[in-house]
Amino acid sequence: ALGRKLSDTATQSRLLQGVATTLALPQVPKRIEVYDNSHIQGTNAVGAMIVAGPDGFIKNQYRKFNIKSEGLTPGDDYAMMREVLQRRFKRLVSPPEETPGKDKPKDDDFPQWPDLVIIDGGRGQLNAAREILAELGVDKVTLLGVAKGPDRDAGRETLFMPDREAIKLEPRDPVLYFIQRLRDEAHRFVIGSHRKR
User: Fold this and answer.
1) pTM for this structure?
2) What long-range pairs does 26-32 form, CB within 8 A, spacing at least 24?
3) pLDDT for res 168
């Protein structure tokens, strides 16, 4: 078991290094947060965040967000993502003051800043996320949008980053496979949370 764990960690480190090289990041990401939304024709909307790092998925830091916005246009992914990112990053920008004798809200269990934020979606979703973070004064987090391929084909995704040309990786590229795994895990988690709700 220890040997398998060490092997997985070594593989994860190589993949994170590959992500840094492929996306031209200033350093290897230690914390990646991936966001996705789910709803039924706009109702019972749920957002979710999953977290990954050098040791793989950090499941005790996954979070779901019941969308609370009133008057949400059914199926408005931008508005759902806006609420989720605002709720997540507002707490990083200005943590709530602790009240003596009162438990801290669950959202404050992980004050770490992510190095890379992955959004399920293309250029439009990426620009919306960028605007939200800019409004909060967040400029040190790298954003990546992952758009599904034609006919939602896995292996033909397009990667989008602010102010850069779109990135297309070979279908068998380990970095693309890793990014797909991250996105699929976020999708699995948000669908599970949605079903429970």
Assistant:
1) 0.84
2) 27/115, 29/53, 29/114, 29/115, 29/116, 29/142, 30/54, 30/115, 31/112, 31/113, 31/114, 31/115, 31/116, 32/114, 32/115, 32/116, 32/117, 32/118, 32/182
3) 93
